[in-house]
Every structure is written in structure tokens, then in C-alpha cells.
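Record type: ASSEMBLY
Status: queued
Input:
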Amino acid sequence: MIEAINEQLLRAIGVGVALLDLDTLRVRFHNDTFKEWFGEIEIGLPFQDLFADLDNVALKEALENPGRYTTETSFRVRRRTMTVAMNFNRALDRGGESIAVLVCQNISRIKELESMIDSYSMMVERNTREIKREKEQVEKLLLNMMPRSVYEEYKTFGIVTPRLYDPVSAICLDFSRFAEMAGEHDPGVIVSELNDI
Amino acid sequence: MEKTLFEKYGGFSFVSRIVMDLYDRLLDDDDVGPFFDDVEMSRIVDHQTKFVSSLMGGPATYTDDQIARMHERLDIGSAHFDQLKVLLTQTLTDHGLAPEDVATIVGAFEVRRGLVVDQ
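Status: finished
Output:
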């Protein structure tokens, strides 16, 4: 009775379960979820036939020691990519018979969320780089117009307190014949000359 | 500065749910789903994330040129565009967005029709 209930439970749970003969790596049992994901599987079928990419040697070695093996497999169900995490555990070692229990969990949603987080982080990182670049340009422009100490004060407090410097020297320049010069020369040349000064 | 819809609804933690829901509806739909038949999962998710984020004023922007280039090899008809519009409207409404905000987002989607639908 208990055994029958256990089998019913095993068949109905939302994870895929299969039992493998450890010596031959053939399927001894699988539940309905396993069948739903991987199709109709004949009992006694070599496991390799189901998962051609699976490294049988590594699987056998890992199940000998430390007795467990973990891998993932991805496949398409219609247009959806399904990813299943596979956990093999060595069980029963009775009368020379060794069985491995394979528990499969559907981790497709986790993979999709990982992709979404990757996509979003890349967008945010690109935006952060752009903001940093713009900030540097604004800073460069402001430093062209005011001394660094004034800029720092403005950046911190949003206002600059007027200060009296005593004594101070100021230079006022007036270019003789500037109006004629501007009229006679190319504007680009004039601006470049002024920049040099 | 006025808040974008992306910020108004709580940023990415909220928008991510819309993205995943729209992704499911798109793939399950027999009209627009086939466009994704041979597309890798990470590319579809990336596309959906940027698509919803850009429509809601999030950290993604597409130029008209980029949108046109991305869709030029696809045989997208007006009926496909209409169907995606229906799915987008349903998804946004089901996530509790105010009708006027749904209209703004769907309106931003509609103005790009000419860029993706085969003339």
C-alpha cells in the first residue's frame, strides 16, 4: 500500500525523476514529468540514446566517487528554449545492483530571468558611461569659465559666496582697431587669434 | 523633471514582470510567435527588455533607423503589428497600468508601425 502511494507520488510530482542502472546506464524507471519533457521512453533504453551530449565516462566516474553528478541540458519545445538541471545521485547498492537516481528540475524561467538581468545591466552600464562622459564635458566647460575653487564651491553648495581679494591686480585690454580687424579677416582666424591670447 | 512611466511604476522591478509576461504571450501566440521560431532565447529576452523599457521611457532608446534595420528581413504585415498591439495592451492592462498610460505606451508603439510593417 505504502509502496503504491510512493510510486503515485513519484509519478505525479513536478520534477522529472528517472532511475538508471549504474552498470549499464539504462533507464529502469521514469515518472510522468520526465516523460512529458523528454518524450516516450522505453524501459531499458540506454541513457546515452536520450542525451547524446552527456559525457557517460564523467558521469560514471562521478557516480563512483563522490557519488553525484550535476549537469544541464537545453532543448526547444515549440519556439521556447527549455533548460533542465539534472542531478544524478548514486543510490541503492544492494546485492551487486547499483542504481542512480536522476532528478530533473525545470530551470527555464531562471535562465530567462538571468538573460533579462544581463540585458538590463548592459543598458544601465551604457547609460552610466554616457552620463559620466557628459558630466566630464560639462566640468571641462565650466572649468574653462571659472577657477577650480569657485567651481568646487558651486558644485557643493549651488552658490558661490563673493570674496574680497586685497590687494588685487586686474588687466583690462582694448584692442586697437578691433572693429576694422574683425571686418577684414575671416571670423575663424579672429576667434583662433583670441583663443591664443 | 517629469517622471517617465518607467519611473512612475517603480522602475525595473515592476517593468521586468511586464517583460516576462509579454514574452510568454508572444511565444504562445500563433500569429506573432512564429517570428521567434529560430531565435535564441537570450536574444528574444534582450529584445523584449529593450522594447518595453524604451516604450516606457526606461534606459533604452532605439533610433528609427535601428528599428527599421532590425525588422527589415522579417515579413511583418499589418495584421501581425495589430496582434502585437493587442497583446501589449492586454499585458499592460493586466499589470494594472492606468488606461491613459496604456494609451501613451501603445501610442508610442503605433507611431513606429511604418518602420516595421512591409509596405
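Annotation: The first helix of chain A runs from residue 2 to 12.
Annotation: DSSP finds eight helices and five strands in chain A.
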